[in-house]
Design goal:
Layout (H helix, E strand, L loop, with lengths): L2 H14 L3 H12 L4 H6 L10 H37 L18 H15 L3 E2 L5 E3 H4 L11 H5 L8 E3 L4 H11 L5 E10 L11 E12 L3 H16 L5 E8 L2 E10 L16 E10 L1 H7 L6 E9 H9 L12 H4 L7
Parallel strand pairs: 1-4
Antiparallel strand pairs: 2-3, 4-5, 5-9, 6-7, 7-8, 8-9
Helix pairs in contact: 1-2, 1-4, 2-4, 5-11, 8-10
Length: 343
Amino acid sequence: MDLKEIMNQGVQAIKDADNLERLEEVRISFLSKKGHLSLAMRQMKDLSNEEKPAFGKAVNETKEAIESVLKDRFQELKDIALNESMKKNAIDITLPGTSLKPGLQNPLILMVREMEAFFQEMGYKVVEGDELELDLYNFEKANIPKDHPAREMQDTFFIDEHNLLRTHTTAIQTRTLEEYAPQIPIKVVCPGKVYRRDDDDATHSHQFMQLEGLVVGHNITLADLKGTLSLFAKRMFGEDRVIRFRPSYFQFTEPSVEIDVTCHICNGKGCNVCKQTGWIEILGGGMVHPKVLQDAGYDDETLTGFAFGVGIERIAMLKYGIEDIRMFYTNDMRFIDQFKRFD
């Protein structure tokens, strides 16, 4: 096949190519190392030295001509393919738009954020910790030694002899005390999940959430604790709420108290929610036990502090009238949709 014939056939094949895949096949057929032009170049060895320059020039001109036509056809086919794709995937801008439903947060998350915001306004720092905790910080540094009967009450999920799923966020407080010692003041709240072996029912769960608070400094008294929790109760349940202290016992605090708030449903008159007492128990607290401070590295005997712990599910259930704790963990959107974001 001579160069003129290669030229004519190449140009015609390019014009006949109706898609980019076919055009690529034509390019390979004529311009590749095994294509028609490469085969024609083999004739060079049979030519005289005087004929070779003219033949080489003719081959290059043929190649350039084919490449030029190929380039133009490639752009034509590319534009055609683009137009076809746009037609196929065309969007009718006259159609109504699709409404995207904004996501909502679990009421427990809303509750945590509302509590954190309240305490941050009062100058508290939010501190979090690991759910997998050492026995040392979960029990011993919280004044619960290995032979203490409270450990039997905890029914703890132990991973091994030294590691466990924390049973209370007090573990965050004991770590915080050790980290800060001997600095003061300390003013933190510690939210998080905790775990205890329990049978799940409407009011119990093996996994639940707590928020604990800790304040340490000079001249801290039970009056400071009462004032703080009184404001907390008003923020959660309304400005008319009143709290009361009842004596109790916790290893982490001494003296220890249970804190009740006047029922937000009947305003203290007595109803089914408060079991006709007019009061609802919301949390526990007290003055930080001196041994806890000493074990953390505080030698100043003039230091005092208070601590408290609240069950977040309990507050949410009381505030929103939720009767079954399991509703928080089932991811039922009919339940979640009832709650707005906390801003």
